[in-house]
Amino acid sequence: MRLLALLLVAVLGLAACGGADPEAPAGGAATLPGPVPADLALRPVPPGTPSAPVFTGTLTDGTALAAADLWAERPVVLLFFASWCTTCADRQDALSDLARDYRDRVVFVGVVTGDEPAELEAYLRAHEAEFPVVVDADGTISRSYAVREPGAVAVVAKGGALLRGWPGGLDASTLDNRIRELLLDEVSR
Amino acid sequence: MPRRQGLISRFGAALLLATAVGGCGGEAASPTTVRVLVRDINIREEGVDCAGTGAYTFFHNRAPFRVLDGAGETLTDGRLPPGKAVRTFEEDLEVERIPTYCEFAVPVSVPARSGYQLVVDDQPAIPLTADSGALVAVVPS
Hints:
heterodimer; A: 189 residues; Glutaredoxin; five-stranded mixed sheet; two-stranded antiparallel sheet; 6 helices; 7 strands; 33% helix; globular; B: 141 residues; alpha+beta; Immunoglobulin-like; nine-stranded mixed sheet; 1 helix; elongated; Lipoprotein (chain B); Thioredoxin-like_sf (chain A)
């Protein structure tokens, strides 16, 4: 009886931790952001900034995603990567940390082309990637952003303006600086 | 009795020879390198890991490949390593990111044949040419 009680306490304790569900597919619906923080202050978008290509897609667990729904409320960082991309892997741990730091204020969305589901899942878990990942099976989304190979990054302002893209990608520290320069007002820093 | 010993000796020698030949797995294979230059002219930093672009996105790290002989028999297979970005011309553009090709180099061991082909991710076979001890291809040729 005492053992049963201990087990119950342990199970309840683990459930209360609120961590990522180990059974849920990495990059799926469980990684979608929560409400936008009330104190999020953003820079105005420079006039004449072009619109980001609008896309819809499917997350790793089959959940439908409309990018415009995300950037209607807050900025979005698009990470174009693949599990076989060595440059992506070298940068991913720090990018995953950055995505966690900005969660709910700036949403990171992975866009993956040319990958095997099991290898992608292993990659996302190995690099503790806890952001939504769109499976761009035929490369349509990547092509619409002129991404020719994985490792690219694009920053979209709230409202859908395409602020900047980096075809060769960039490391987390530089991306953090660019997010602050491009998106965040002094209040939000 | 000596005749019987001679028979046993000859049988033993034949058995050893057969075992030796069988144990080698058939033909002797020689080490070489398959080199493929994917001329995709993409803007990259020279020397970074790369994958093929455009019509050659199937050339990437961990992509499955097979080396065939001229008749289409598979000689060896494996997975590609990452490509390396190589400059398309020597002129110094004074910028970090320059027009590059993506070159793949894969060590393999294959038996001697008059012709070789490379198949990557079940795409159409690409003829390989022996050149300076390597088997090379340039795509598009």
